[in-house]
Structure formats: structure tokens, C-alpha cells
Amino acid sequence: MDERLLQYIQQYRGVYTREAISRQLGEAGFSGEQIETAWQVVEGAAHPPIPGNPAASYPAGPAPASYYGAGGYQPGYDLYGRPLPLPRPRLRTSRAFWITFLGLVIGYPILLGLFYWLESSLIKGSIILSNLLIWGGAIGMVIGAITLKNRNYPVAMGLLYALVVLVVIPITLAFIALVVIFGICLFGGFKY
Description:
It is a single chain. The chain contains 6 helices and 2 strands, in the order αααββααα. It has helices spanning 3-12, 18-27, 32-42, 95-123, 128-148, 153-187, and strands at 49-50, 53-57. Strands 1-2 form a two-stranded antiparallel sheet. Helix 1 crosses helix 3 (32-42) and helix 4 (95-123) crosses helix 6 (153-187). The model is unreliable at 55-71 (pLDDT under 50).
């Protein structure tokens, strides 16, 4: 049994429902049988399988010392006592990721265009609100990605990927275009 399953369930069972945790683990690539066995172990209905013989498990009562390995290491931890990483959901199959990512990539430019149109027709020449929306949106995406990283990983990654597509890539391409144009003008052989 993958110890990350047990640790993930133990960490989040007080926060999310059993169905939500099982669905998240299923999206991360674990089978329904693995997830159900992990739930039984966490809830005390079954014992973890004997190392080297996954089909067998220990009888009722506390798990024997041999379960913890030769050095007494507990499952879910590496040799130095650090917790093993928890499984992350697969982003390509996560509905929350795609809703966040596509909603921002499609909706944010539409919202910006609407603000520009309103400001140009109503306020005549002022683009203060649109600039606030651009910078506030970018800062909001960064703060949202940081705060949601451990609570809702797919949404955090949707925010981060949308930030890259909406802000980082256009700025990088504009900078490259400026460098190329400057290089052409500087070294292109133009005579003054």
C-alpha cells in the first residue's frame, strides 16, 4: 500500500468529506480498491499490509514492530523522519483547474475590453480603472495561488498558469520584439 494514501486521508479527513477525498485520490491516479483499503486502515477496520506481502495483513491489535521496518521507521516518512510528499491531483483531469484556468484566460481579457470600452466612452481618455484591474488581477492571482496551494491545489495552479498565459508570456514576447527591433535598427546597416 502506498503510504502517501494513508497520510493524505489522515491529513484531510477532518476538513473534507470522504467522497471528496476519495475523488481527489482517484483523480491522482489511485484505484478505488487502493483508496478503500486506505480508508479501512485509517479508520481502524483493517491493518496495513505486511511489507513484501501486500495480500496479507496483520491480525487485529496493534501492528507489530516489524511493520515499521528494520530501523523502526514509520510508514509515510523517509529515512530522516521527513514526511513523504502527498500525491497531487492530476491537473489535466481536474475540473477545478480547467474552470479556473479557462475562466481567467477567456474572461479576463473580455472584462478588460469591457472596462476599456466603458472608460473610453464614459470618462473620455481615462484608463485608470483598467490599469487597476490589470495590476490588481495579476497581484490577486499571485496571492490566490500562494494561499490556495495547500488547500485547493488545482485552483491554485489554474491561477498560476493563467497568470503565466495572461501576463508573463505577453510581456516576454513584447520584450523580445523590442530587443529584435533595437538590434535591427542598431546593426542593420541603416545610414543616417
